[in-house]
Amino acid sequence: MGLKALFLLVVAVLSNSAFSCDKTLKVGISQQWAPYAFKQNGKLTGIDIDVVNLVLKEAGFCAKYVVMPSSKRGFAELKHGKVDLLPAASYSTERDSFSFFSEPYRNEVMRLFWYPHSRLESLDLQGLLEHQQVILTNSGSYFGPDFTHFKEDAKYKEQLVTVSSLRQRLAMLVARRVDFFVDDELAGLYLIQKNNQQGIELHPYIVNNDSVYFMLSETTLLAEDRAAINSAILNNQQAITEIIARYVKY
């Protein structure tokens, strides 16, 4: 074997060694939702995908993504050990009964999007509703206890309007058919920036702010596996912040 061929073989071995992992984890993805998880040029990408890849690589794992038809299916697969990890999970005692929750790795912040008007800037949600503002919502999302309270109040039935598509909610705001829409902060900003919509801003009032976690399998992951994942999350907070900044500008 010539020196050049030997050199290339050594480089290949070292490269494979550098990218080897102790274990491949099956990661369940139940929906495509930009900027968190979506396909671009046929490849799965997004904030949560990048964070999972970063954390698992540091923890010594590789990731294999498994697309699920629904969140409900994802929970069932995790419960029965068919997948090892579900990202983008909010905590609940029911979910905690069949999985381990990691350290939080980002927040899910629900915000009001609007064309600013100074007389309404200092108002909270109730104040906006008392001023007869019409707010679009998504029936499938949780916006916190205060919003749920007002949503269930018949007094505000005509002001809290459900529209299923974020694109449609944005279009209705742009057309000035409503005063606000409420949505996940990063998802709303990503779509606004992608569409180059001018003048829409975040209202100062924060509707809800919850931590987001990985749900980890009780049956397929050892205590040391979970500890490695938690350590990687805690050690990469700045890197996670930088990942988010690559997708959304404040």
Automatic annotation (TrEMBL):
Alphabetically ordered keywords of this record: Signal
N-terminal signal peptide: 1-20
Residue ranges annotated for the Solute-binding protein family 3/N-terminal domain, each copy included: 24-243
InterPro entries: Solute-binding_3/MltF_N (IPR001638)
PANTHER family: ABC TRANSPORTER SUBSTRATE-BINDING PROTEIN, MEMBRANE-BOUND LYTIC MUREIN TRANSGLYCOSYLASE F
Family note: Belongs to the bacterial solute-binding protein 3 family.
Protein name (Swiss-Prot/TrEMBL): Transporter substrate-binding domain-containing protein
Organism whose genome encodes this protein: Pseudoalteromonas shioyasakiensis
